[in-house]
Amino acid sequence: MSAAAPMHTYSRVAIALHWAIALMILSLVGFGFLMTQEWMPNRFAIYQWHKSFGILVLVLSLFRLIWRLGHKPPPLPSDMKTWEVAAAKVTHIGFYVLMIAMPLLGWAMVSASKLPIENKLFYLIPLPDLPGVTPSDALTDRFKLLHEIGAKLILLLFVLHVGGALKHHFVAKDGTLARMIPALRR
Question: Can you give the residue ranges of every domain in the chain?
Answer without folding.
Answer: 12-113+120-184
